[in-house]
């Protein structure tokens, strides 16, 4: 098969073409590699442009700097130099071959063999190259697989995985983004057989892949196959006895209601609302503090019934974590919408959750009108002041936030006289 990406606007970037020309001079060669070529052929957005070259790293630096580019040796020992032009980075990597792997990282030697460089990559659709004129070079059958949306390891699947066990998660991540139908059988079997290798990976790498997978337009099919292969339990044991069915309704709700794909909310949909377990999950996978806190707050937030009044929800929002309530309401709304296809009562429930979520999204926490100094003027001090202030705040919340400062001071004075 043959193909070109001449229609890709980014390919005609003068700085990219200048860099390619510099690297292609005097018998050397450079090609655009990997994801940019794949996405251009699929009509998908291209964020980063990576370049493969026969130039050794020090020669890449020499040529790029002589042409006025800035260079950063981001991974020089592995052959990668970042070339920067106008604030835009291009990763330029010398052709390589693996000489030793341990399941996490590889020792490489530099070379000039394009086929050998392609064969060290993970999947056929990620091993496509493009020349400066847009001509696509396919050395491992990636074009045919891309056309049929088959995600296939290059060569022997088990060998590719043993080189880096992260490729198990990448298999499902790329399937979620680009695959159709069933995953490649040999790849799926290899992932199932070698899933224990995931324990050798750093938590940061595992979470990074899971997060990217959960950001796919619809990750539900990939999660289903991960469950079938035992990979999901290995990577996310909290999901084992909870199930992944809820994510189907969540994705439909996102599409129907215009919600942005939210990897953390999707994660919440497939794990139990247990604050202790969510804290442990966050620690194990090294989530950021804000990500862990969001999961914990969601899990710790009590369920809201669909028939609750907006006034009552406002009181709960004031006393609780607003983001936790919003996450709860979104998941409950999605679940009710999913059941509504066969249950009229669920349709009414979904309407209630939609009303409450709309209210919660617009709600802003009101300011309590009293301060400690207001009560000091009445002669209240110390612990008594704090207790009275807390009591008055409770009365103010119970009034639907309607009591003003003067009314609250009047209640304070009456309470002191009693």
UniProtKB/TrEMBL annotation:
Cofactor: Mg(2+)
InterPro entries: Bact_CCA-adding_enz_type3_sf (IPR050264), NT_sf (IPR043519), PolA_pol_head_dom (IPR002646), PolyA_RNA-bd (IPR032828)
Residue ranges of domain Poly A polymerase head in the record: 30-152
GO molecular function: CCA tRNA nucleotidyltransferase activity; hydrolase activity; poly(A) RNA polymerase activity
Keyword Manganese applies: no
Keywords recorded for this protein, A-Z: Hydrolase, Magnesium, Metal-binding, Nucleotide-binding, Nucleotidyltransferase, RNA-binding, Transferase, tRNA processing
tRNA nucleotidyltransferase/poly(A) polymerase RNA and SrmB- binding domain mapped to chain residues: 187-239
The protein's Enzyme Commission number: 2.7.7.19, 2.7.7.72, 3.1.3.-, 3.1.4.-
Family annotation (PANTHER family): CCA TRNA NUCLEOTIDYLTRANSFERASE 1, MITOCHONDRIAL (PTHR46173:SF1)
Similarity comment: Belongs to the tRNA nucleotidyltransferase/poly(A) polymerase family.
Protein name from the UniProt record: Poly(A) polymerase/tRNA nucleotidyltransferase (CCA-adding enzyme)
Organism: Aminobacter niigataensis
Origin organism lineage: Bacteria, Pseudomonadati, Pseudomonadota, Alphaproteobacteria, Hyphomicrobiales
